[in-house]
Amino acid sequence: MQAYINKAETLIEAAPYIRKFSGKTVVIKYGGAAMTDPLLEQMVMDDIALLSVLGVKPVIVHGGGPAINAMLKRLSIEPSFENGLRITDPQTMEITEMVLSGSVNKKIVQMLSDRSIRSVGLSGKDGGLFEAKLHRPDGKDIGSVGEIVACNTEVVTALMQNGFLPVISPVSAGDEGDSLNINADIAAVKVAAALHATKLIFLSDVPGVLREIGNPTSLISTIKIDEVPEMVADSVITGGMIPKITCAAEAVQKGVESVHILDGKSKHALLLEIFTDKGVGTVLW
Ligand SMILES: Nc1ncnc2c1ncn2[C@@H]1O[C@H](COP(=O)(O)OP(=O)(O)O)[C@@H](O)[C@H]1O
Ligand SMILES: CC(=O)N[C@@H](CCC(=O)OP(=O)(O)O)C(=O)O
After folding, report:
1. Dihedral pair phi/psi, residue 28, rounded to 5°
2. Which of 5, 71, 211, 231 could be bridged to 218 by S-S, CB 3.0 to 4.6 A?
3. pLDDT (tens digit, 9 = 90+) per residue, 220-268?
4. Is 5 within a domain?
């Protein structure tokens, strides 16, 4: 009996948040380590399906770096990176597109379909979603890596208006119709900004931004975007978190109300972040 009372109380507590975010667009960046465990994947999909049933409008932008690495390994190709971006030679590009716009994208669509959520998989190429060009950081050639120059969300809004949940792979085309590999965090920011999303949520492999890496009790719950440059300068934020947090700050500057960084491996992190007062990760605004 007590268990039912607890569940009812949880629902009552969540009710104002469910009302608040019903009809609101929430872009979820799903990728990295959160995607490597089949049980975790099912759990994340349960949460996204529930959000959708409760009237929130989720849009998924996915990565799949570990899945690309696994396929490269099967083909005996060694992955290499430059400042977190995959150096993408023609063969790696072919595999990246097969994995992201193919198997990973369709797997997510299928997992949602298994939960009676109608979703449609897209890549940056579909409906002219992303216009991209070759990315050359400081003039350096890192192969077929792209940067997004425009984001045309008509195809995404058309799907949402018709009750479909969009699932977006970041792989796009350049001016010449050549495939370009785009970091999924960056793609998620562009989509969130173009859709004027209420929230952008990064599902990562850490509980949020930590004062001390490896110590979950040092979680920083709230960051104002003007604090970000100092945190980077003071080396509070390092490595893979730098592009993520810089992206997050860009999203807020472009009108996304808040950006959240959560542990995709933590049970029901998405629901707890959206539907409770305290949340569980780091929120940037
Ligand atoms: N202050 C910090 N708090 C949390 N993580 C940090 C911090 N500074 C650097 N990191 C690193 O950033 C990583 C998350 O970024 P990244 O590897 O790009 O994530 P993902 O694979 O989810 O896209 C963490 O695994 C951690 O090693
Ligand atoms: C240019 C570049 O680095 N693209 C990424 C795209 C996938 C991605 O971003 O996946 P995660 O979110 O799982 O890291 C890559 O090839 O790994």
Report:
1. -115, 120
2. 211
3. 999 999 999 999 999 999 887 888 898 899 999 999 999 999 999 998 9
4. no
